[in-house]
Specification:
The chain is about 25% helix and about 30% strand. It has about 130 residues and is of the alpha+beta class. It has a 7-stranded antiparallel β-sheet.
Length: about 130
């Protein structure tokens, strides 16, 4: 998770987030979205157990529906591991949620962690489940 690039996409631009790094570009994006925080959340491969493309696609749609129902804007994205053979996982960069809200949604979709991005600060890995 720490050796992963978190990438969000718009039609014109790609945004990169690294855990422990502060990004002025991401700060500008948060300001443009009129918020003080963002969170990378995925619904793919719950509890890091590989699922079929069909199952992952279903849960990705469910995550996006959940965010829309709660009024959160988001950009599509993906987490790209820098080491190992784990393929990229679709995710979203959601805007305007508190750490508690982002953690709750991550837990709902059975994720081990989320990435929380407070305005003006480094991106944080937030562990949601003890991995032993």
């Amino acid at each position: 998770m720490r050796s992963t690039d978190y990438v969000a996409f718009t039609n014109r631009r790609t945004f990169f987030v690294r855990i422990g790094h502060h990004s002025l570009v991401i700060d500008e994006l948060l300001i443009r979205m009129k918020t003080r925080s963002g969170a990378f959340i995925t619904a793919w491969n719950p509890f890091s157990k590989t699922q079929s493309v069909g199952a992952n696609t279903y849960w990705d749609r469910e995550l996006k529906s959940c965010l829309r129902a709660r009024g959160f804007a988001f950009l599509p994205g993906e987490g790209r591991g820098q080491i190992g053979e784990w393929p990229p996982e679709k995710s979203v960069l959601a805007f305007g949620m508190s750490l508690a809200q982002a953690s709750s949604i991550g837990r709902r979709f059975r994720q081990n962690a989320i990435v929380y991005i407070p305005l003006g600060r480094p991106a944080e890995l937030v562990v949601l489940r003890w991995l032993g």
